[in-house]
Specification:
48% of the residues lie in helices and 22% in strands. The protein is of the alpha+beta class. The protein has a domain at 3-128: Jelly Rolls. The radius of gyration is 27 Å and the shape is elongated. It starts with a strand and ends with a helix.
Length: 188
């Protein structure tokens, strides 16, 4: 997996990074500070970028490619847009990774050492990176709320259908017992 560091020495790379949604609004000084502790990483198909429950300090922006986020081996989401971010939840919580992320095709990411946000926080100022985290988490929370609402509605439908099926099965049992009783009477 090739890794490119010393990003500030590559004007072409810096210009492309500035086009990434979320990074284009970074204040110039924060952007250059961030580049000092960042690297561009390349992943091939099926390479794991993050493994669930592991610890590290990296947050990733997709430059190109496609990744899948999984939890307990269940697919949660596929990310493929330039500027999509992942890895921020473990950093915010200070806990192990909440999900795994692997490349679905050759993927390039900007990997940012999360100590960058901590350094800014120590200066008592909210960083642009923290603002991005908040916006992304708000969007994801809204999407999760929508999915939960949909799932609850579906569960209500299933429960009603289950109740109707139980009633039907109960009625069929009663009919079966009556039928057997009638058959027994006819045979005697």
């Amino acid at each position: 997996m090739p890794t490119y560091t010393n990003l500030e020495d590559h004007d072409d790379i810096v210009a492309r990074l500035r086009e990434i949604p979320g990074l284009r609004d970074f204040p110039e000084d924060e952007f250059h500070d961030m580049l000092k502790i960042s690297k561009i990483t390349q992943y091939d198909r099926d390479d794991y970028i993050i493994k669930e429950n592991e610890y590290d300090n990296w947050v990733f922006f997709i430059i190109s490619g496609k990744v899948e986020v999984t939890k307990d081996n269940q697919s949660i989401k596929v990310l493929s847009q330039c500027g999509d971010i992942f890895g921020e939840i473990g950093i915010i919580e200070g806990a192990g990774r909440s999900a795994s992320v692997h490349a679905l095709e050759k993927t390039f990411c900007l990997a940012i050492d999360a100590s960058f946000a901590e350094k800014i926080r120590q200066n008592k100022k909210k960083s642009a990176l923290e603002q991005i985290f908040m916006e992304i988490l708000a969007r994801r929370l809204r999407a999760t709320s929508d999915e939960l609402t949909w799932a609850k509605k579906e569960l209500d439908v299933i429960r009603k259908e289950n109740t109707a099926l139980r009633t039907l099965v109960g009625n069929l049992k009663v009919l079966n017992e009556k039928s057997l009783s009638l058959i027994e009477k006819e045979e005697t």
